[in-house]
Specification:
By secondary structure, the protein is α/β, with parallel strands linked by helices. The chain has 25 helices and 11 strands. It is a multi-pass membrane protein.
């Protein structure tokens, strides 16, 4: 009798219909989707273990970059700030979201439908819109940007998730349990703590973990509302990637990825539990305690009475230089980074962002001066002013150098691989050569791309002639099929890994790439390129202008300028700096372009009323 069922079961299995081609195809598609989603993440983890100073699979694998990240004051401060924001936002969102879910789930009132719809708005609205709206609101209220502005916005977009999750859990709650407890004499508070809350606990834990992950990962909204000295880890990673991706950045991104995946996975698991087991409560409590200790612990920089807040391009200063300045002047330096002059302008125009020192490019410095956003610099405090090359002084945007001090200078030209491009590159025509289809990269910069096309035709990069601009637009449109990508951030990485053989780029980043691969070269074409000066300036609402002037004077010292050159790869207007540089830096023509190259270069200037035509043509080119 016992044998027959087993045999019948075996026969049923043997004769069970096999999956058809349709099911197999669906599994294949699902596998391909997962492969597409997760292979880049696995590559990121592998690249974070490479032994080379640039991402390179052939260099072997080590874990030293993770150690470097965990020893970096900038990364540690960003991690601590991220944890403080995420933990605070999670706690507040849980309280507000749970209260809202209970009110919406147990009561009916006029306007409830509209409130429920409004809860979806922070979830479905584009993050850029949320960021702009948040900054506009804070500006109207006159509230300064900083930790509290970031926290308020994070609470705003995290709370709806708590409402959704708790309401879904509340739908399965048997109201008879609550009624029975009340009939037995329990107070409403006791019913909540002993009946309702235990039932909601898995949803609260899951919602809290999800809010923590969302807050920890956010970059776009945070970049809008972050103020002086408030840099979270995602914002720091994004800004550093603008000047190249290194294993150090990959290691930090991998740490963030691992933490986020762990939190989200735990949240999904906990939401499926009827009640939280003991091991889950112990593990969760231990983890929260550890994160809390890190968040509220001392800052990596230590305490200081005065903090100098610097808003600067990523990788545009030296950690060693900052630490030396802190020691000399007994202060703390907090650095926040941006990736475009327009981002800098937007922050300062709000009037609620307060920085002590900024580094705008020359044309943007002129805009800031005209809008009254810069404070005059007390030249009597700059004892190292005499080191500056007069050629970089009295520029049209600040003729008397009343508001700005030149910091670095940038030249735009062509970087190329000598082992891939057989003939010397001397003209802009090389970027229009069909032989290099798919191996050309252009800057993702409207004026720089038009400058290259205009120079190629012998016109000024600041042309206001409609026919010249239209001809340049036609040339750029014809070139687009040859272009692999438009990239202003990591074009030197494309040269290093061989994805691009010719790139339209800046001398400093290509100079650093050439130090890693001697086959990489840089040239300013015969028709000429562009040049720019990045300046040190003090915003009109700076809290510590005297300390900012001391920092300016400090970086004008030849030793400090030499340190900046070796970090950025860009030349400096400091005439004495070469005496403090190693020969391979001091005599590098890519870092300090020769006079013949500089004479070919022109400064990009404001083109006035014709600018909308540039905008129109650029939009058409990029949309094709």
């Amino acid at each position: 009798m016992s044998f027959r069922p087993r045999r019948a079961l075996w026969m049923n299995r043997h004769h069970a219909p096999r999956p058809g081609w349709g099911a197999t195809g669906l599994k294949g598609v699902a596998g391909a989707v997962y492969l597409y989603l997760y292979v880049p993440l696995l590559v990121l983890l592998c690249l974070s273990l490479t032994a080379a100073p640039a991402a390179n699979f052939e260099a072997g694998f080590v874990g030293a970059w993770y150690v470097k990240v965990l020893r970096s004051p900038a990364f540690l401060a960003a991690i601590q700030t991220s944890l403080r924001v995420a933990l605070s936002a999670t706690l507040i969102a849980l309280v507000l979201g749970t209260a809202a879910a209970l009110a919406l789930g147990r009561h009916r009132f006029r306007g409830q439908t509209w409130i429920e719809w409004l809860l979806y708005l922070p979830v479905v609205a584009p993050e850029v819109v949320v960021g702009f709206a948040s900054v506009a609101l804070l500006a109207q209220l006159g509230r300064p940007l900083g930790f509290w502005s970031v926290l308020i916005v994070h609470v705003a977009f995290c709370t709806p998730y708590v409402v959704f999750i708790v309401r879904a859990r509340l739908a399965g709650f048997d109201e008879r349990w609550r009624d029975a407890a009340l009939d037995l004499g329990a107070t409403p508070a006791a019913v909540f703590w002993h009946v309702t809350l235990p039932w909601l606990l898995p949803a609260l834990v899951g919602g809290g973990l999800l809010c923590f992950a969302l807050s920890l990962d956010d970059c776009i909204v945070t970049s809008f509302v972050a103020g002086d000295g408030v840099t979270t880890l995602p914002v720091l990673l994004y800004s550093k990637m603008k000047t190249g991706v290194s294993p150090e950045i990959n290691a930090a991104a991998s740490l963030l990825l691992i933490l986020t995946v762990g939190v989200v996975g735990t949240a999904q698991l906990v939401q499926r539990l009827q009640r939280l087991p003991r091991w889950g409560r112990v593990s969760l409590g231990t983890t929260c305690l550890g994160l809390l200790v890190v968040a509220v612990g001392p800052t990596p920089h230590g305490a200081a009475a005065t903090t100098l807040h610097i808003y600067i391009w990523s990788n545009y200063t030296s950690e060693k230089l900052l630490r030396d300045f802190e020691t000399r002047y007994r202060c703390r330096v907090a650095v926040e980074t941006y990736d475009s002059n327009e981002a800098l302008l937007a922050k300062l125009q709000t009037g609620v962002a307060r920085y002590d020192l900024i580094v705008p490019s020359d044309y943007m410095a002129g805009v800031l001066i005209r809008q009254g956003l810069l404070r005059p610099i007390d030249r009597s405090r700059l004892t190292n002013w005499h080191h500056l090359d007069p050629a970089f002084l009295h520029a049209p945007y600040d003729p008397d150098n009343r508001y700005t001090v030149p910091y670095t200078f940038v030249v735009t030209g062509i970087g190329y691989r000598r082992d891939k491009v057989p003939e010397p590159v001397e003209h802009w025509d090389a970027l229009w050569d069909a032989r290099y289809r798919g191996r050309i990269a252009m800057l993702d910069d409207q004026r720089e791309c038009f400058a290259a096309a205009l120079r190629r035709r012998g016109a000024s990069p600041n042309s206001q002639d409609e026919q010249e601009i239209a001809r340049a637009a036609s040339d750029l449109a014809a070139q687009k099929p040859l272009v692999k990508t438009y990239d202003s951030a990591t074009f030197e990485q494309l040269l290093l890994n061989g994805e691009a053989w010719l790139v339209h780029g800046f001398n400093g980043q290509i100079a650093k790439a050439a130090r890693q691969n001697p086959n990489i070269a840089f040239v300013v074409p015969q028709e000429g390129g562009t040049r720019a000066v990045d300046c040190l300036a003090i915003p009109v609402n700076a809290a510590h202008p005297e300390l900012a002037e001391q920092f300016i004077d400090y970086v004008l010292e030849p030793q400090a300028s030499a340190e900046i050159v070796q970090v950025t790869g860009y030349g400096t207007p400091n005439r004495a700096v070469r005496d403090f540089l190693p020969p391979d830096w001091a005599n590098n023509p890519y870092v300090f372009p020769p006079e013949t190259w500089l004479r070919r270069c022109a400064v990009i200037e404001d083109v006035g009323a014709i600018l909308p035509r540039y905008d129109y043509y650029w939009t058409v080119i990029k949309s094709k």
